[in-house]
Amino acid sequence: MPDCDGPRTRVIEKVLASDWMDSVIDEEHAPPSVFLGPELVRQKLYQLSPEEDYTLCQSLARVSSYYVADQQQRPPFSAARYGAVTKVYVVAKQDMAMVEEYQRHMIAGIPVVEVREMANADHMVMFSAPDELAGHLADIANTYT
């Protein structure tokens, strides 16, 4: 989740080269691209998700734009607009791509009105814990609208 104090790329810049595992990042050709490797997807994104969701993800895998350099040149999000939006953060405690410690670090720098937790959700919360996520989203919508 971005903040209004730093570059838009702060989150992606914290990812170490080794964290990308078997992914391929190509910044040499225009436009820069990334292909998320199957081991990264299995071990860090879908480790608690149903096998059929992982299989579908792999069958639909494509090279994606890697927009870091472009985003580095853009100003931070404004406090007047982005900062004025009420934010609730749902921590996915089993997220191996953005581990809980890092999620909490992001939360500390962003004004959120509430932090919720999902104990058994991986990075792909909508697949690993869809009913629990739907409950949180409905409750958040009812509480903050």
Automatic annotation (TrEMBL):
One of its GO terms (biological process) is salicylic acid metabolic process. GO terms for molecular function: methyl indole-3-acetate esterase activity; methyl jasmonate esterase activity; methyl salicylate esterase activity. PANTHER family: METHYLESTERASE FAMILY MEMBER, OS01G0557100 PROTEIN. It comes from the Eukaryota. The lineage of its organism: Eukaryota, Viridiplantae, Streptophyta, Embryophyta, Tracheophyta. This is AB hydrolase-1 domain-containing protein. SUPFAM superfamilies: alpha/beta-Hydrolases (SSF53474). Residues 40-134 form the AB hydrolase-1 domain.
